[in-house]
Specification:
Length: 230
């Protein structure tokens, strides 16, 4: 127990950092959060492919993005001249997570599962028996047959990776071991629940036939509703 008459007031910087982290569950969200902050701070967006000659000015502040997963921002000093030194700070936009597989449709023992793979060096044992959701970028075809990207962050639990009850695995409290490929697979629904809700998860009834072998329709339907697209 700590006791030193310390204040319980959370510094504004800490609260702001937590807000940034909560708004940035994927590299795409992190870049968008940073982009909005830079824009509000007076930074001008430029394009990496454009000619910058004559466009960059002293005391100017600029940024550009690449693939919406990387962002570069820089400020030019008032007395800067070409050849002067520069200071650079780098950071990650990504973090360890479970990443949706290109073919995520799986099922076992009457449960619909979403196939994932580990990304980064995560503490994977902490992902079991907790509420999980999804976040990232979805490519959507518009009515004009063009593609645009949309960010998605489902703010409710939809997935779970269960473990066995302690009496079925007595030694687990001493040494919890698992297979990342077979055990680290979230459940999204039971086959019975899908049928009860009137949603046929079979391949033959899915309108998006090209996607049917890759992802459960119940999962695609969830994305469609969250993004409010067709």
């Amino acid at each position: 127990m700590l006791d030193g008459g310390e204040s319980n007031v959370v510094p504004d910087e800490a609260s702001d950092f937590i807000k940034f982290v909560n708004e940035s569950p994927s590299p795409f969200h992190a870049v968008e959060s940073a982009r909005l902050r830079l824009a509000s701070a007076g930074y001008e967006e430029i394009k990496e492919r454009d000619n910058w000659s004559g466009k960059l000015k002293n005391n100017g502040k600029y940024y550009f993005t690449r693939n919406r997963s990387t962002i570069v921002a820089f400020a030019i000093g008032g007395q800067y001249v070409p050849g002067n030194g520069i200071s650079i700070i780098g950071a990650h936009t990504d973090s360890p997570c479970l990443k949706l597989k290109p073919v995520s449709k799986k099922a076992s023992a009457g449960y619909l599962q979403v196939g994932v793979e580990t990304y980064g060096s995560g503490l994977w044992h902490t992902w079991f028996d907790r509420d999980l959701s999804v976040a990232g970028r979805v490519m959507v075809e518009t009515d004009k047959h063009q593609f645009e990207h949309k960010l998605i962050k489902v703010n409710r639990p939809i997935l779970r990776i269960p473990t066995l009850a302690i009496h079925l695995d007595p030694g687990v409290s001493d040494n919890f071991k698992f297979n990342k490929e077979t055990h680290l697979t979230p459940l999204i629904a039971t086959a019975t629940k899908v049928l009860t809700n009137g949603s046929d998860n079979s391949d033959k009834n899915d309108k998006n036939e090209s996607f049917t072998p890759k992802h459960h329709p119940v999962f695609l339907d969830l994305l469609v509703k969250e993004l409010d697209v067709k």
